[in-house]
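Hi R.,

As promised, here are both runs. First protein below:
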Amino acid sequence: MRIVSKSDNLHNNTDTISVDNFIVTDEIKVSDRIFLSKSTVFDGLTYLICLRGSGKLKINYREITISANQVMIILPYHIVKKIEQSDEFCIAAIFLGNDFMTNMVNSINLVNAFHFSKNPVATFTEEQVKELMEFHMLILKRYKKLNSPYTMESVSTLIKAFMLEVSSLYRLNRSSLPNYMPSRHEKITEDFFRMLILNFKSQRTVKFYADKLCFTPKYLSSVIKKITGHTIQEWINELVILHAKTLLKTTDMTVLQISEELNFSNPSFFGRFFKQYTGRTPLKFKYAK
């Protein structure tokens, strides 16, 4: 768990951000050179509060804009990339790791997760955003008191309150959300991504996903290519590579353990696969500065 200041580079020149517990940022003036400039998978739940300006992000296949007084909620294992931004684009963020989320699951109305996936951006009033930022700043202030007893327990409780407040405001403002009605092909694509997120570690064939969704591989492939501009195999490989990079950079797992985690037959095959898509062996990537 850590705190990130205005001067920190969240991206750290890698393609992934893995969060064991949580990361809370100070107000960040987003640079064109950093922060989601490459495809990124957050291993957990992400809250972005836009304070000024605007930015356009691609979440999986959808391009979504976030502007001042809006909050974006990005669900775990979604592929995110920044497309464009205004010069004054400024955000505050909270990243919650899956381990942290496990302890919070009973505190959140998980029905909202479905609505977040449909409408990841909600518009709040200036007063509502101000209230959220008061939570946010209190979390930062409390976290900095590292020598105080029960600091992490206090921060966890505050983050829980923040999450509940966002969910509450989201429900109150739901009537103002755009009535996003996906087309048939978009619905198929959303179902594919849900299936991919659940199974990418063990299943890497088009046939598996087509069978699960009750389509022929040819039909499903044509739909995903039409909607996203990329093939099913490209999406599978991208998610596998991004997760492999996360494990290499943020854990002590060996190449053998990672190859087993991702269901490769042996480390050599995993190494060849990884080098094919990154230009480097897993170990060279792991120790690259």
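And here is the second one, sequence first, then its structure tokens:
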Amino acid sequence: MKESRYEVGMEKLREVDGCGGEAVIASLEGIAPDLGAYIIKFAFGDIYSRQGLSLQERELLTAASLLTAGGCEPQLRVHIHGALNVGVPPEKLVEAMIHCVPYVGFPRVLNAMFAAKEVFAQRGIRPAGGGAAGPEGQMGKEGEKIS
């Protein structure tokens, strides 16, 4: 028998967010349980379950989208946890956020970076080297400085 959208969505939600995602759904029970069902069925049952992108790519895109929207820091924290849960390196999350600066500006990127810093601290993570070096500090394959 084919799994329902809800079953597929719950499975994917657990895979990505673990108990964090379930806590979000549970928090909606007293006020908007249908919203929780939409998140499970649509976002995770239909969208996250599609072929074509890995869960790492999906979570990186989700984090960038929430950063871009701005004002979504609680949801961004959930998805930063999700990205880490599916194997996105913290350095890649930081670099993706820095990449957004010319497109959305410093305030939104700063808010997202502080959300990431909070999540990393909760998980005892310290990104290696504090992120990638800028153009002035990049090193070549053999360790030579790139000018």
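A quick note on the second one: DSSP finds eight helices and no strands in the chain. Let me know what you think.

Best,
J.
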